[in-house]
Design brief:
Elements: E1 4-9, H1 16-29, E2 33-36, H2 54-64, E3 69-72, E4 75-76, H3 82-96, E5 102-105, H4 110-116, H5 123-143, E6 154-157, H6 164-171, E7 174-178, H7 181-198, E8 206-210, H8 220-225, E9 230-235, H9 245-256
Parallel strand pairs: 1-2, 1-9, 2-3, 4-5, 5-6, 6-7, 7-8, 8-9
Helix pairs in contact: 2-3, 3-5, 6-7
């Protein structure tokens, strides 16, 4: 499986014009994927700073780009009915011409829930809801007319070994996690074990890792050796300095040659 480089353009503390310019630049530079995230408020910095909604933004990205894959990292299962979310993703995928990666997770940012009227509940409860939602999403994709332009890749984010990685083994095409090379290696082995339990080829799941610092190209080879295949670089507003992306793309091209 080829190495892929993604950017996460965090949709906080920035004007929409800056975000749109950043996704265009990421595509022009040659990034494989552009992600945003699914929150309603900034995660750090000014708590009530500028912020934009995930899926309507992805619709704009779909229209404004041509080649780069796009998606949420990750969409929160709690914020939308599973059938509606499936239809939204299918619609954006048509706008994009089949370039959406359907990222989903169980949710964790309590302020989003409180401010928008969703029940926060408990982490195990939110995971149970995600587990129940995945077959509903797949079933809705089968019913929608027209269907998505391609079999939409499903990305599940999270490192919980008892539930999240089991759901990943059952439903995902991409697993996304965080941590040191040692952590990524361990989580990959746990995911492999879940695949073995359900009779799935573990190599059919792409392994993605989120970097905390996009300048740490020195960690690339260690993370690759730990099993990472997709590398996501975070970029913050308001200005989105994508300069570190160039080194990662050069590294990708050398490894994939």
């Amino acid at each position: 499986m080829k190495i892929r480089i993604a950017v996460q353009l965090q949709p906080q503390h920035a004007d929409m014009s800056a975000i749109m310019s950043a996704v265009a630049q990421a595509e022009e530079m040659g990034a494989d994927i552009a992600y945003n995230w699914d929150h309603f408020y900034p995660l750090w910095g000014e708590a009530d700073g500028k912020h934009f909604e995930c899926w309507t933004m992805l619709g704009a990205w779909a229209q404004a780009t041509e080649k780069i894959e796009i998606g949420p990292l990750v969409s929160c299962n709690s914020y939308r009915n599973p059938e509606l979310l499936a239809d939204m993703a299918r619609t954006v995928d048509h706008i994009a011409g089949g370039r959406v990666i359907f990222g989903i997770g169980s949710g964790w940012f309590e302020r989003d829930y409180d401010e928008y009227g969703y029940e926060f509940g408990t982490a195990p409860g939110r995971l149970r809801q995600l587990d129940a939602a995945m077959p509903r999403i797949a079933a809705r994709w089968e019913k929608l007319n027209p269907p998505a332009p391609r079999k939409m890749p499903v990305l599940i984010g999270g490192g919980g070994e008892k539930v999240t990685l089991r759901i990943t083994a059952e439903h995902a095409d991409i697993w996304h996690g965080f941590g040191s090379p040692e952590t990524i290696s361990h989580k990959n082995s746990v995911l492999d074990a879940w695949c073995a339990k359900i009779g799935r080829d573990p190599s059919s799941i792409e392994r993605s890792v989120g970097l905390q610092d996009p300048t740490r190209i020195d960690k690339a080879d260690e993370l690759l050796a730990a099993g990472a295949q997709q590398f996501t670089l975070p970029f913050e507003g308001p200005d989105y300095d994508l300069a570190p992306l160039a080194d990662w793309l050069a590294w990708r091209d050398a490894k994939n040659a």
